[in-house]
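Form 7-S
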Amino acid sequence: MKTFIHSNFLLQHKIAERLFHEVADQLPVIDYHNHLNPDFLAENKRFENIAQMWVTSDQYKHRAMRINGIPENDITGNLGDKEKFMRWATTLPKTMGNPLFHWSAMELKGVFGIDKLLSPENAEEIWSICNAKLAEENLGMTEVLKKWKVETLCTSDDLLDDLTAHQQATATQSGLSVWPSLRSDSMLAFQQTGFKDWMQKLEVVSGIEIKNLVDYQTAILNRLDIFSGAGCRLSDHALDSGFVFKPTSVKIANALFQQVINEENLSPLELIGLQSYMLNFLGQEYAKRGWIMQLHIGAYRTTSSRLRNLAGPFGGFAGIGNPTDMDSLFRFIDSLDKNEALPQTIIYNLNPNDNAAFATLTGSFAEDGLAGKIQFGPAWWYNDHFEGILEQLKKLASFGMLSHFIGMTSDSRSVLSFSRHEYFRRVLCNMIGDWVAKGHLPDNFEWLAALVKGIAYENIHKRLKTELSQIEK
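Output:
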């Protein structure tokens, strides 16, 4: 009897099988956006049990368990690790149709060699097998990443973070390069609780007393230089649902920032104005440094106040917001482009209704001699399921140029979730095989292999890895 996760899983055509096995599966992985802890990577963290590695920090699983009626205490509370694993075992069989069903089966097979599908009936057995392998094979984070062929990964780091762990991980974990990327939200969080404390810490790490907007920008530039020196090549902004861009003069921005210094509340329009000014400033600075600017757009994060209080702001219960205000997005990008200060940019949408608009945008701001300057980012968050990945690829192919696409990211805090690269590659190869079978593409293996190589590895390698290699030297 064929196991569920077999060598040709999701591959329905002979050409798809060739493309995956001979091309895609032979390539290393560059994961340019994830949320792994760099300290864990530097020490090659080892987990006491499979629950700690697989369940307790995975918000995707937490969300599914809530939908399945599992009490919050049994998900994020003080219940023991084994009991939390057992709650996940009762939930997984009910996720059929959700990508978690596929991913979980791939993770058990790919890392632990387990062909069985986790269920309440075999949970005790699988708990024991996984824990024995963790102990016997000394499976730390680095060993797991190597099973997924990970060559380079870029973590998500705050402006104030110490970056020595990235350097330690790169120096000590053979065959793996770990680089920071800048999560930029703190710099624009002017009205959020804790911003004053964050800014005081910025004064300490930069050595610059912040009395006005110029001081604030100077302190930020100090830290951007530190990030560049540590190999950072990417920034990331979470532009949540309702993102609005309003061009703002330096005079007005100075006055608004002074209100922040004085701990005076800004009106919603004033806050938009100050954030817009800083977005433009930061975009220019990213361009000067040759960074890639990532924009994750469309999350609606303030859903359940009760769950937020119980599990924290990143508990896996955010929703999909309204379609993006394309006028604001175009104005923001154009505010940089018209001054020849637009960095390479990746735009991600959470609302799938934005797919066509985002794919079309990739052709709206081109640069002589630079292919694919604006990227429609891979299917993100609630879209990175089988149909969502297909939809993103098809829209990009229809409205842009699929051949310049830079491929998948894990966007996860779980080391096991790097299975998503293999999942993506299987979906990609099968889609191309399906197009060949229908006569939509020529049956020319050389051309098709070049397309797969570019998307799965070479495009992001050329854009990112070459510069990182120069820094390593």
